[in-house]
Structures are given as C-alpha cells and as structure tokens.
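fyi for ur records
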Amino acid sequence: AGKLLAEGASHAGCARAAFWSVLRSDTADVETRWGSLLTLHGLLIATNDTASLPATYAAGVDVGLPTWPLRMLAAAAGVDDPRVADSIATSRGVDYRSMNSATLWLRSTWGAHRGDRSATREIAAILLQRARESRLQQDSVLAQSASAMAAAAALDTSGALTILGRLRPHAPRADITWQPFAAHGLERLTRAQFLLARGRPQNALDAAALLEASEPVTYLLYYRQSLTLRLQAARTLGRADDIRKLAARLERLRPAGAALRAAG
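which gave:
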C-alpha cells in the first residue's frame, strides 16, 4: 500500500505512515523493512523533507538495517552531506577487488559526483574484468554503468552519453523494483543532464521522463531533479502547457512538515 501511495510522491503523508508502520512492526522480515526504508528515504528526498532524514537513518539502524548505502545514494544525487559520503567511502577502504559488484557501483557513482577520475577508472576496470570472467548479465550491466561514471568523472560527456544510451535494465522484476543498482535511476538522470547541457532539450526531456516509471522505488530519489530538468527543457523549447504542468507538479513536492513528522 505504501509503495502505491508513494508513486510520484502523490500521497506522501499516507505513504510515509505506511512505511513507518512496517519499519516498527515486530513481524516484518528484513527484506520488507529494507524496502520500506528505501522507499521512505526516496520519498523524503522527493518532497525535500531533508529534516526527517536523520530520524529515518536512525530508525533503520535501530532495526539492524545498513544506512550507509542510502547516504551514499543521496550524496551522489547531490542531496546528502558530501563530507558524510567521503567518510563512509574512507571507512570502507580502497581494496576494490574485495568489494561486491553492487558496492563498487555505489563507489563509482560517488566517485563520478566527486570527479574522481582515478577511482572511477579503477572500479570500471575491475567490473569489466568480472563481467568478462563471469559472463553474468548483472556484472555486464554494472560494468557499463561504472564505465559511464568513469567517463563522466573524466568530463568525457560524449563517451558517457554513448554508454548511457545503450544501458537498459536487465534484472528480475523484484531487483528492478527494490535494488538501487538495477533500475539505473542515476544513470538516466545523468544522461538527461548531459543531453540538456549539450543543447538537446527534447532528448533531455524524453530521457528524464523515463524516471516517471512507477515500478522502481529508487526513482523517487531523482524525481524532483527530473521534474526540474524537464521544466528547464520545456522552457528552452517554449512549451507553455508543459511549463505550467511541470511547475505545478514541482510546487506540490513540498516538505512533509511538522505534522507529518509527528505522524511518523
């Protein structure tokens, strides 16, 4: 129910209440709690309710869930404190070959955000080697994503756009719904940003519109940014009707406020 109510952050208050109920439930299993925390996290960012993030991270820790991936995701999206993400990255070390592929993907997204050419290049090389050796679809997709992040960190927008244009989710439906690395939300937002920067507003608008998909809950992380980008593209194209609709949708994405925090 919470997931349905969270789509497009359209019923943020009701969705939030549902996720908090699951997090605090004595009978919910780890996977269900994780899904609730992940979606609640994205919902708070979509509605710009960053004041509620510390309590949300604390609630996750209280029930034994890892919150560092959420903080790195938020930081890579430009939301959380970059100093926190740097601290997390430092604490987890630089022995990239010992890390699983999903963690390497997280590190590559943060490295791209920081413009760390060395780290992103090394991570991409490791994932490409894993993909060649394992021949697994997931490893191949993550290697492509990391390669795009390495190109972005090196300010090679042409190379990044080429890779990102080929990238498609290839995973079981459950992974696309719940796993941050499987749905390519950040990759789609990055592609739209590069397209707009290169003077291709229609292509940027189309790319950002893909983040409207309701199934991947992690798209909520990038929902506000995608609407902002589409509004900018619509203004460039002079589309008055789209400008009005997108501006109205952004206006509705307001912080939940004290009343919802109390309800939480």
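The first helix runs from residue 2 to 6. thats all i got for now
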